[in-house]
Specification:
By secondary structure, the protein is an alpha+beta fold. Among the domains are: 66 residues, 434 Repressor (Amino-terminal Domain), CATH 1.10.260; 151 residues, Beta Polymerase, domain 2, CATH 3.30.460; 100 residues, DNA polymerase, domain 1 (Orthogonal Bundle), CATH 1.10.150.700. 53% of the residues lie in helices and 10% in strands. The strands form two sheets. A five-stranded mixed beta sheet has the order 1-6-9-8-7, covered by helices on one side. Strands 3-2-5-4 form a four-stranded antiparallel beta sheet, with no helix packed on it. Strand 8 and strand 9 form a beta hairpin. The protein binds zinc ion. The site of zinc ion has 7 residues, from loops.
Length: 472
């Protein structure tokens, strides 16, 4: 007699993840026929496959074998750390809402990579808090901004903890769910706008940020800096206290009603959330009121906005109104949004532009190729390895980490490493460049600034009078 309990349970888990039999099969390395046989009870997966299934489906092997969820995990929904599985389902639901039921395999893979890396950490709990803070802020017509590399995580994006989409450049239709990846550009904002076959304008996105640049963060005691308007200071403070009400939470105030650090400890990790009250946000809100256009409604046209950056018309745009930026803009021919993102990174790091990338750009290397972010180090090495038919993300990751912390600046690049890099045909200029870097920012950090700057530039172009009154 056939045993249907495993098949039924598998079918339920697969459906909850929005996967087709083909997609689930591809993720665990079997055909769609094999998955179909498991589900109709005519065969069962081998034990090595069970481990993969447990990873992909977000349940333990024991739950797979007994064909039911552990009751203790179902009941224990009181503490926020006990809700991790529900939070994971929230990110899967958000993916389906954004990308449709038959999400692209590349997208599924990204989510599952992050899941596998984070499942034994508390990171999802922290991302979820950021998303609750963001949504409470929006209810008040306000924003929060999370600094740092959070935008390297697709899960953080799906949960609403960051606005930065780290996937490769792609189109996504809000109407019919069509997804098209397009690697002809370095950044999704450089994709030409187009109309979907269903007739709707298809959205462009994706900043090509590998999760590897964020990997170290999820495994250590971590911290988030969250800046916000003083208007929502009281609300934000009550949100975090409510969120961690069953946990150990301590608060340290550093400047009265300006900066406060909350530290929360679980049995696995400790995390610090530093809230900063920033009056800049009051200006942005004033801009929204004066123009009747909210930040998220701004749909800037690439050429129009880029042209102003090319001309150096950046007065009133934070981070881009400095003489340092204006000097750089003169040296660099700004061809794309990606170039602008590069410039943001080049102006933020230490030992990155002066005596380094600046010389390379003058020698004729395009600004899109030089090292502006830690992600560039990883992507460049990984690309060369793939060309040689090798892939070792661990190797590229180590060099990225050592570069960003200035290890080669202090100790030089060893002869052995030079040889290894030569073997994969890494250019000499690249090796010289990593030897000069003292500190490098994550790309997600730079993209956040560029998005803000491009949005403000849109206001400057379309509402020059209001912009001048509020921002200049
Ligand atoms: Zn469509």
């Amino acid at each position: 007699m056939r045993d249907y309990s495993f098949g039924n349970f598998l079918h339920e888990l697969r459906s909850r993840r929005g996967l087709t039999q083909y997609q689930l099969g591809a993720l665990v390395g079997v055909s769609d026929k094999a998955v179909s046989k498991w589900e109709n009870g005519s065969s069962k997966p081998q034990s090595n496959i069970l481990y993969k299934l447990s990873d992909v489906l977000g349940v333990s092997v024991d739950e797979l074998l007994t064909c039911k969820y552990h009751s203790s995990e179902k009941k224990d929904t009181k503490g926020v750390f006990a809700m991790k599985k529900q939070l994971w389902n929230k990110s899967f639901d958000a993916m389906r809402e954004r990308y449709g039921n038959s999400a692209h395999l590349e997208i599924m893979n990204r989510l599952l990579t992050e899941h596998a890396e984070m499942q034994n950490t508390d990171m999802i709990v922290y991302f979820n808090l950021l998303s609750v803070l963001a949504s409470e802020a929006r209810k008040q017509g306000e924003h929060i901004r999370v600094r740092g590399g959070t935008g390297a995580s697709f899960v953080a994006y799906l949960l609403g903890a960051t606005e930065i989409n780290p996937l490769k450049p792609h189109y996504c239709c809000p109407e019919c769910g069509t997804v098209i990846f397009d690697d002809s550009v370095d950044d999704g904002w450089d994709l030409p706008k187009k109309i979907c076959s269903c007739g709707k304008e298809i959205q462009i996105d994706g900043h090509n940020i590998p999760f590897e640049t964020y990997r170290h963060v999820v495994h250590r005691n971590t911290s988030f800096d969250v800046s916000m308007s003083p208007n929502i200071w009281r609300i934000a403070n009550s949100v975090i206290k409510e969120y961690f009400k069953d946990c150990e939470l301590t608060a340290t105030e550093r400047e009265e009603n300006r900066i406060i650090t909350y530290t929360v400890t679980s049995d696995k990790s400790a995390c610090a959330f530093t809230f900063l009250a920033d009056t800049e946000f009051e200006q942005y809100q004033a801009l929204e009121r004066a123009t009747g256009t909210a930040f998220e409604r701004v749909n800037f046209s690439q050429n129009e906005v880029l042209n102003e950056f090319r001309l150096g018309n950046t007065d009133g745009i934070p981070k881009f109104c400095t003489d340092f930026y204006k000097d750089m803009a003169e040296e660099v021919s700004l061809g794309s949004f990606y170039d602008l993102i590069q410039i943001s990174g080049l102006s933020h790091g230490t030992g990155v532009w002066i005596n380094n990338a600046k010389e390379l750009v003058n020698q004729g290397i395009p600004v899109s190729n030089v090292i502006a972010y830690r992600d560039d180090v990883f992507n460049h090495i990984e690309k060369h390895m793939l060309r040689k038919g090798m892939s070792n993300t661990g190797y590229a990751y180590k060099i990225m980490e050592d570069t960003r912390r200035g290890v080669y600046f202090r100790g030089g690049v060893s002869e052995e490493m030079k040889k290894q890099l030569k073997d994969i045909e890494i250019e000499d200029w690249f090796v010289d460049s990593i030897g000069k870097i003292q500190y490098l920012f994550p790309k997600a950090h730079g993209v956040t600034y560029v998005k803000l700057a491009a949005t403000l530039m849109w206001y400057k172009i379309h509402y020059p009078k209001e912009f001048a009154e509020i921002m200049l």
